[in-house]
Design brief:
CATH superfamily of the largest domain: D-amino Acid Aminotransferase, subunit A, domain 2
Distance between the termini: 14 Å
Order of helices and strands: EEEHEEEHHEEEHHEEEEHEEEEHE
Shape: globular
Helix content: 10-25%
Low-confidence stretches: none
Largest sheet: 9 strands, antiparallel
CATH topology of the largest domain: D-amino Acid Aminotransferase, Chain A, domain 2
CATH class of the largest domain: Alpha Beta
Mean pLDDT: 97
Number of domains: 2
Number of helices: 7
Bound molecules: 2-OXO-4-methylpentanoic acid
Number of strands: 18
């Protein structure tokens, strides 16, 4: 029997819980060190580190579950490894070999096994890989030293209530990313740029805000924390844009939709099309698949969950997605990476 931490697993919020260990790798003289486990969850770095001044840093987010047959599995970590390397090249940080990325995950999860939420609690172990430009450098330029840290924290649903519809506001007075900028990269600055928009939405009673394309404000980009998907008839529709983060959850759901006989359309989606959609969801690692009830755009409200309940197509996609993660549905795609 695996020992588990004394936590109220079914009521965990999405917040930080200190676990026993994090793992760190140090990049110096063009080489990564071996991984070292740390129990301290503080980090020491130069006050002149480029991550602190010029935002040369990036992160990832992925999840670990206990399956119905008591295996500990991580969902599609290879995808996060390639996305992180895409971000790293964009802001001139070193590549992280996939082998090292996967080793970091295996080691840090094994060192914190008691924090993997038990099967059936609705919680998961959230993994946060982080790379920061370290070492002193005051002139603008890439750091010469980097720290790659992976920490874990047990989490519950990102939005209160889990698979329950939320209301969203379309923002036109803020952008989260610029055309040809870093909107398709997981850099912290994109999230900092989104803070005032999210606060603006929350003050007006909207837990979620939706960004439009920064060039024309004509096309849908993504929500502050997650990608946008829409269902129309038997079609799964999701925006293609140069300024959105390529969500692994979105990619996975689209693959499940196609496998279930749905048509998948990845294309620019005009905001004027929302009136035609039957169901809308916000999808991401933390948000999982959060159905959207109302979207307010220019004082007009559009409803996608008339009885306040998630629609049938999103419900079926959600059940298949979480069913695979928890081992209740066969993983015929090979998405589960077992941690032994
Ligand atoms: C994730 O979904 O993993 C993210 O990094 C989004 C963040 C706002 C929690």
């Amino acid at each position: 029997m695996r020992q588990t931490a004394d936590l109220d697993w079914s009521n965990l919020p999405f917040s930080y819980v200190k676990t026993d260990f994090n793992i760190r790798y140090f990049y110096r003289d063009g080489k990564w060190s071996q991984g070292e486990l740390f129990s301290d969850d503080n980090v020491s770095l130069s006050i002149a580190a480029p991550s602190l001044h010029y935002g040369q840093q990036a992160f990832e987010g992925l999840k670990v579950f206990e399956t119905v047959d008591k295996k500990i599995v991580c969902f599609r970590p290879g995808e996060n490894s390639s996305r992180m390397n895409h971000t790293n090249s964009r802001i001139l940080m070193p590549q992280i070999p996939e082998k090292m990325f996967l080793e970091a995950i295996d080691k840090v999860v094994k060192a914190n096994l008691k924090f993997v939420p038990p099967y059936g609690t609705g919680a998961s172990l959230y993994i946060r890989p982080l790379i920061i430009g370290a070492g002193p450098k005051v002139g603008l330029g890439p750091a010469e030293e980097y720290i790659f840290i992976v920490f874990v924290t047990p989490v519950g649903p990102y939005y209160k209530g889990g698979f329950k519809p939320v209301d969203a506001l379309v923002l036109e007075s803020y952008d989260r990313a610029a055309p040809q900028g870093v909107g398709d990269c997981k850099v912290g600055g994109n999230y900092a740029a989104g803070l005032p928009g999210s606060n603006f939405g929350k003050e007006k009673g909207f837990p979620v805000v939706l960004y439009l394309d920064p060039r024309e404000k004509k096309y849908i980009d993504e929500f502050a924390t997650s990608n946008f998907i829409a269902i129309k008839d038997n079609t799964y529709i999701t925006p293609v844009s140069e300024s959105i983060l390529p969500s692994i959850t979105n990619k996975t759901l689209a693959e499940i939709a196609a496998d279930s006989g749905m048509k998948v359309e990845k294309r620019p989606v005009e905001i004027s099309e929302i009136k035609n959609f039957q169901e809308i969801g916000a999808v991401g690692t933390a948000a999982v698949l959060t159905p959207v009830r109302n979207i307010v755009y220019r004082d007009q409200e559009y409803n996608f969950a008339p009885d306040g309940k998630p629609g049938p197509v999103l419900t079926s996609l959600y059940e298949k997605y979480t069913g695979i993660q928890l081992g209740n549905i066969e993983d015929k795609f090979g998405w589960l990476h077992e941690i032994k």
